[in-house]
Amino acid sequence: MQYLRTPDSRFEGLKDYPFAPHYVALADGDGGSLRMHYLDEGPSDAPAVLCLHGEPSWSYLYRHMIPVFTKAGHRVLAPDLIGFGKSDKPTERSDYTYQRHVDWMTEWLTGLDLHRITLVCQDWGGLIGLRLVAAMPDRFDRVVTANTALPIGDQPMGEAFEAWRAFSQEVEIFPAGRIIYGGTTSKIDGEEIAAYDAPYPDERYKAGARQFPMLVPSTPDDPASAPNRAAWEVLRGFDKPWLTAFGADDKVMAGIDRVFQKMIPGAAGQPHTILPEAGHFLQEDVGPELAALITAFISATR
Asked: What pTM does this model have?
């Protein structure tokens, strides 16, 4: 598998991102390996808060939440998915599949032998992370779903998603930073837009970002639909604590929080929250508040 590696110089002096890098080699599924970057903050012997980002962000998304978690005594892990952030970026769009992303994250999680995990997932972080929960439920103590879903292709994706997917394929230069900007209510500044653009020196680095919208299962016969249906069969019996925290200003994900609340036994009686001042990238709009809400949820469900 051919890949590109973003030069370290692209990440120098990023605003509010003082965290030490960690790297691991993962099998690329083609006989080689890829380097994946992740953050690992807080005490190594504490239960883990696993923060999974989505499209087209990276671990920078969690920079305002990590200090809140570590101050509360938690270990925080925030990986960059393959194709994003400081992780290697395969150059062919065909190298990116839903299953490969699940496999890469499974290898990383089991390689670190993580247990007692609180999953915090948003956007594609949920599409991948919830598959991990279904495959390894004993490793997870609780789940927080934030503006995410686990689609099985049995319902129309909606006009907002179809418009986003069309834009992602048709735009000449894929504007990662401006996409994050557009998905917030408070609006990130120029330095932060540049930080989201940093992983991508040019369009060759954006194969994963371009391909992700096409991997969302939107028909019942999509390759990911059957594995997601199987995951739902497990999650329908998941009785550990489950919290939904959704930004109100998100047309694509509106109402999906109620699906989790209805379908997941562990969601019963939890303090589910709609955050009125937040958009799709609620970590940017209300990051510290969201982290405080999650730390309170962890404390209340120990």
From this structure: 0.97
